[in-house]
Specification:
mainly alpha, three-stranded antiparallel sheet, 203 residues, 58% helix, globular
Length: 203
């Protein structure tokens, strides 16, 4: 068996190949040249830790991602609460102002006329939030809660849809009860409606 470290090349005399160092003459006129295999240096593969393409496997990266996610989620909630509070206060002011105008006229028919006219104009300019039915909700809101300070406090915890549900409860104690439960238990509007239908207050 040949030595794997050597490579043998057989040259024929007279083939125009010049003699080279290391050639040996063999019977039959052949020159045999034995070449040593060049030594090679094995280069180790780069560390997989250094070039890892999956940063999620790194615990410090996972912590960083979790922290950023927490910041974003908290801020989104705070923004949502801020927007809700301003919207509830806006709707109260709209209802309060319309109610003032209607009360000054002392005419029920005037109220329907003015609300319809305002709805057409406001909806055209500001969208469906000012449709006729919603304007009447705002008027009812200002009627049930005439104190803006109370409205400001409620707006920090309750959404407009929750307020819109509560203002049509006839009993003031019932309104206060459900408003407080929404604040403490952080009910959704759907949960609030289910509790009212289940007559939680009456139990």
């Amino acid at each position: 068996k040949d030595d794997p470290a050597d490579k043998t090349v057989i040259r024929a005399d007279g083939g125009g190949c010049p003699a080279r160092r290391g050639d040996t003459k063999e019977p039959g006129g052949f020159r045999v040249h034995r070449m040593k295999k060049r030594s090679t240096t094995t280069i180790p593969a780069p560390s997989m830790v250094a070039i890892s393409g999956n940063p999620g496997s790194n615990s410090s990266y996972s912590t960083l991602y979790a922290d950023l996610k927490s910041y974003i989620e908290k801020t989104r909630v705070q923004i949502a609460y801020g927007i809700n509070q301003e919207m509830v206060l806006l709707y109260w002011h709209v209802g309060y102002r319309i109610r003032q105008d209607i009360l000054e006229e002392h005419r029920a028919s005037y109220g329907k006329e003015i609300v319809s006219s305002l709805s057409r104009q406001l909806s055209a300019e500001y969208g469906k939030g000012y449709k006729r039915a919603n304007l009447f909700h705002m008027i009812r809101f200002a009627e049930i809660f005439p104190d803006v300070q109370i409205v400001s406090a409620l707006s920090r915890q309750l959404s407009w849809t929750q307020m819109r549900t509560i203002i049509y409860l006839d009993d003031p104690l019932k309104r206060d009860f459900y408003a407080e439960m929404c604040r403490i238990e952080r009910w959704s509007t759907r949960t609030l409606q289910a509790k009212i239908q289940g007559m939680l207050f009456e139990r």
